[in-house]
Specification:
Elements (H helix, E strand, L loop, with lengths): L25 E5 L2 E5 L2 H11 L4 E6 L4 E4 L4 E4 L3 E5 L4 E6 L5 H4 L1 H11 L6 E5 L6 H14 L4 H11 L6 E2 H8 L3 H12 L3 E3 L11 E4 L3
Length: 216
């Protein structure tokens, strides 16, 4: 993050209600731009979307799409629009798994997907059933560390990958680097950049995590 360059405002298509009982509303900074969210689940999904290698950028609450439900012309605002490096786009709807059935969101998304013109973004529903607590933890940690990269630290530890055979504990890599806690942060960033990969992807990334170099 560059504190000398204030972030650009959100490009969300609607204003966020700041007061809502039982919900979590706020903003994050991504690519020096404000991204708004309306629930903790949306924030977690946003973190994971930004860490996809295919993701070029993420738009919050893009312009509403219009669709016909058989009786009425309606409008729906997606939570996010993901734009990939290859130019493809994905509308993302976020909903707690326990609310999916009674909300009718699956029917809404099916109608929208069927009525979107050729070349439009694809449509995807993401719920909290699609990822684990470890996924949330790792995505939050990686997003935080990626906000404040230290290039020399990342390069120093990336160079160590060339000499590694098999898996090694993160704590041992950190000790060998001499960078202390900053070495751990660099390794997490390098996992996000696919220089290293955890041996067990279902666990939280800690000092005890076994990692290995990613083979191109």
């Amino acid at each position: 993050m560059n504190y000398s360059k204030p972030p650009k405002p959100s490009r969300a298509s609607r204003s966020m209600a700041l007061k809502s009982r039982g919900s979590c509303r706020g903003f994050a900074i991504f690519q020096n731009r404000v991204i708004v969210f309306e629930s903790h689940l949306e924030l977690m999904v946003f973190f994971m979307l930004t860490l996809r290698m295919q993701t070029a950028t993420v738009e919050d609450q893009p312009d509403a799409v219009t669709y016909w439900d058989g009786e009425t012309l309606r409008r729906h605002t997606f939570d996010f629009l993901v734009i990939n490096h290859d130019g493809s786009r994905i509308y993302i709807a976020v909903k707690p798994a326990k609310r999916v059935e009674r909300s009718g969101v699956k029917t809404t998304l099916r109608l929208i997907a069927d009525q979107l013109p050729p070349g439009s973004p694809s449509v995807r529903l993401i719920t909290d059933a699609d990822f684990s607590y470890a996924d949330r933890y790792n995505a939050t940690q990686a997003f935080d560390f990626l906000r404040f990269p230290v290039q020399e630290h990342d390069e120093a530890i990336a160079a160590m990958a060339d000499d590694l055979v098999g898996a090694v504990r993160i704590a041992d890599l950190v000790a060998a680097s001499g960078l202390g806690a900053m070495g751990f942060r660099a390794i997490v960033r390098l996992i996000a950049h696919r220089v290293f990969e955890p041996v067990n992807r279902k666990e939280r990334i800690t000092n005890d995590t076994l990692v290995r170099p990613v083979v191109a």
